């Protein structure tokens, strides 16, 4: 029923000393290779296939940092000594079309909380490559649910991440022309940079050009997009794609941040998080404290927890027409979590605030 899992660009576990990668010293050398696409003042390189091979050590096994059903991600050392992540789609006409669709979306986007496209390669028939900035702290899913006794993500950081992802979605919905529906908002598709700032990624399910409240229904043979636990039930029932699908998924993500629980756990056959916290969603003012991640102990803001639960409840409401827009969500989170957002913003040393 759900589409195959896509690889988030999370690759913090790779040992750079084990990699023997080539690098592009000064960028492409020939006139053709120097072709760039300018979007809002930022260059996106069009790499040649030989350069892609060089950057990955000819696709060395040691450079692999992620793998899924449709693509493999490699670590690369770029010309300015920075790191990049190369997403190579498997050879397939269908996957190449998906690559072109994702590339078309990414070339339009420039936002501090959306993972940045550095370049691409479309030299090979049916083999597309996307080159992204390297985001070293893995995914939000790993930070929240990684297990192994790792450090607990602090409350203020959780609220700040929620605010940053909301800003990214508001940009997609209202700041782009044409507008974009992400289609697969989830914790695994939120990456964390060196300062634990959020970066929304994976636009393989994105739809472009949604100016109306809803779009025409999908065709009978179209594949359902989204991930278990996050996908909008209204979309599953109706096939109608809209910005409110993203709002629903964001509401689930916000609940994850508050509760520390996974949106869906297929191995344990646990029901959806929205069902588990149903009583809290019906009475966020009175019962929010029951749902807050127990690992936080008393280190959270009770007022912010109530407000966050209330926002989540509005986002996951059954009627899409009654859900807030992402612009409204941004405003509500900014007003509700001012203290947490300000506390994180005041940290100027660039160090992690994991505690």
From TrEMBL:
Membrane topology classification: Single-pass type I membrane protein
A GO cellular-component term linked to this record: plasma membrane
GO molecular function: ATP binding; protein kinase activity
Main location: membrane
Pfam families registered for this protein in UniProt: Pkinase
Signal peptide as annotated in the record: none
Alphabetized InterPro entries for the sequence: Kinase-like_dom_sf, Prot_kinase_dom, Ser/Thr_kinase_AS
Keyword Membrane among record annotations: yes
SMART domains named in the record: S_TKc
UniProt subcellular location: Cell membrane
Keyword Cell membrane attached: yes
Sequence ranges assigned to domain Protein kinase in this UniProt record: 59-338
Superkingdom, natural source: Eukaryota
Gene Ontology BP terms: defense response to oomycetes; signal transduction
Family to which the UniProt record says this protein belongs: In the C-terminal section; belongs to the protein kinase superfamily. Ser/Thr protein kinase family. In the N-terminal section; belongs to the leguminous lectin family.
Protein name per UniProt: Protein kinase domain-containing protein
